[in-house]
Amino acid sequence: MSTVVRIPTILRTYTGGAAEVPGEGATLREVLAKLDADYPGIGARILDESGKIRRFVNVYVGDEDVRFADGLDTATPTGSQISVIPAVAGG
Amino acid sequence: MSLPPLVEPAAELTVDEVRRYSRHLIIPDVGMAGQKRLKNARVLCVGAGGLGSPALMYLAAAGVGTLGVIDFDVVDESNLQRQIIHGQSDVGRPKAESAAASIKEINPLVNVIIHNESLSNDNVMEIFSGYDLIVDGTDNFATRYMVNDAAVLLGKPYVWGSIYRFDGQASVFWAEHGPCYRCLYPEPPPPGMVPSCAEGGVLGVLCASVGSIQVTEAIKLLTGTGEPLVGRLMIYDALEMTYRQVKVRKDPECPLCGKNPTITELIDYDAFCGAVSDEAQQAAAGSTISVGELKDMQDKGENIFLIDVREPNEYEILSIPGATLIPKGEFLNGSALERLPQDKKIVLHCKSGVRSAEVLAIVKNAGFADAVHVGGGVLAWQKQIDPSLPTY
């Protein structure tokens, strides 16, 4: 389904500076696969070598953390906003 | 969800205090009772840096009775772009002392406790136990996990904020009423994966945007006013000027505040967060040269290829003569490797030697066995070889 993916500052080097890019897929897994196809390398910053979401990156569909939903199988209906929120420690 | 006030009210406000805090007192939600609670409150701010500066200043102005400041660092000129609690004449002075002086100037009624030391496993429990609430303005993952764990173990609310470039995040962690920091981010990123403000930069005024959220939440918790930011993460994007929030759930599997906790005391936070990754450490062992050695190699005309792995903006500020800029990201995605000459010795450097060690591991893996990196990076070059260069 057609969705919107919010890209955090530290990953915008992959998207040519874009803060928001279109996403495509029925589940988060499909959306992230398409995202990595569009912006090679970005997937590895979100998923680890075994394909799981990295423990210091949170991915939200709407305002729900997918760790507490169906993880990568979380549905991404048309119009949903997917946010990638990495841990930052600056102060 | 509203919560009861964290602090009991002080017996009374003096005439001076009533005059000073009158604009609070006439807000019905604060009133005399709320201001008396602030007077009785004991708040610790961890770090008197970017976030700590506005946080401490507004907490002081608001009339928090006791303010603790813990910071081991001294004021540096590069702090002044955002750490507004310090001024030009404070450069070189311990931050905790400089901050205390500013607090006294803003509000002499505040009792300031100076902790001019580094927060560690040895003192964190004792120091925290003297306060009602912890405001976090530190700049690294190890301290943040330590602060979180100590706050959970002591049952204290932890008002958290974090900044990077134009992005800010804030939340309130309080295990008795909601999630803790580990519920939100179970593990820190591996070292080198997420740049710090010293490496990536931060918009100075962003500190005020996030620090003011933290103070707002602290005041609400102390006085039992409004809806606290418990179980929610506020995400601020200064470029787009948007605030968004997402839910933060208490993780039943959280090793610290979940159903079956496995962390029941403080752990080794440096090991948990790793100063430098194992791969980088192994790569750097025996393959680290000093800036003096680099200068010698250059003077003797040795056949080296010097690579600066920092970002273009950093390269613009200062660079080592003869260095070619290839940012670390290009090594991470592999595109840099084909640009490396096979017939020259690869010498890597960055700002201080952390990023170049990470890249060294990648380069060595790619078969450049005699590659080295420069310990201390361009900062050491500026200090020891060419002090006329600017620094950052």
TrEMBL record, chain A:
InterPro entries: Beta-grasp_dom_sf, Mopterin_synth/thiamin_S_b, Sulfur_Carrier/Prot_Modifier, ThiS/MoaD-like. Transmembrane segments: none annotated. It comes from the Bacteria. It holds the Pfam family ThiS. This is MoaD/ThiS family protein.
From TrEMBL, chain B:
InterPro entries: Rhodanese-like_dom, Rhodanese-like_dom_sf, ThiF/MoeB/HesA, ThiF_NAD_FAD-bd, Ubiquitin-activating_enz. It comes from the Bacteria. It is a single-pass membrane protein. It holds the Pfam family Rhodanese. Keywords: ATP-binding, Membrane, Multifunctional enzyme, Nucleotide-binding, Nucleotidyltransferase, Transferase, Transmembrane, Transmembrane helix. GO terms for cellular component: cytosol; membrane. The keyword Transcription regulation does not apply. It is found in: Membrane. Residues 300-390 form the Rhodanese domain. One of its GO terms (molecular function) is sulfotransferase activity. In the N-terminal section; belongs to the HesA/MoeB/ThiF family. This is Probable adenylyltransferase/sulfurtransferase MoeZ. It comes from Bailinhaonella thermotolerans. The gene is moeZ.
